[in-house]
Fold this protein.
Amino acid sequence: MNKAEILIIDDEPQIRKLLEINLESNDYKVVQAATGKEGVMMAANHPPELILLDIGLPDKSGHDILKELRAWYTKAIIMLSVQSSESDIVTALDNGATDYLTKPFRTGELLARIRSCIRRNNSDENTSLLAFGNLQMDLIARKVMRNNELIKLTSTEYNLLALFAKNEGRVLTHQYLLKEIWGVAYQTDTQYLRVFVGTLRKKIEDNPNQPKHIITESGVGYRFN
């Protein structure tokens, strides 16, 4: 039984009901709010394991509510919206959203994203050994193994891969990756990032042209599986 509590902040009753049915049938506990103000109060009084936050709210923009929540709420927030523009998605992710789904979305995809987020919530931050299929990482020794063979990575390649691995399942924007690895001065140099992702794929993927680990989110960034 999951019994993890999920807070839905969405002004559409039919959407909240559909989400409630699907989530409760998968053993999640569901609480609901129809406005941003109500959602923030509910989250503050009893912090849930995860929040599903709609962008189009009647009282405040979901982007503003996200910023309010991120002042203190550290667990996963998945944004839901009919907006699918790259700028809207990037804004949400850069403001602290854990993930983003465009309506209408498939129930299976939503559940998979929720499982990934909650798994990351519950993971031990001190764990130094990570495994992703045939790929293993030792964060203390700074070693990466593929099919039990050591992979030689440059310092920058390793730092980039470690950042991906620590954020497994989460979309990381181009700007975030560039700032974290190379600094603020490189935030717009997406071609620079693309080159390093390409070299990483050649070293860790079975087929770099059909990657299974570093997945491109077109126009936004990358997701590590």
Summary: The chain has a mean pLDDT of 90. The two ends are 25 Å apart (CA to CA). Residues 184 and 210 are 31 Å apart (CA to CA). The chain is about 40% helix and 20% strand.
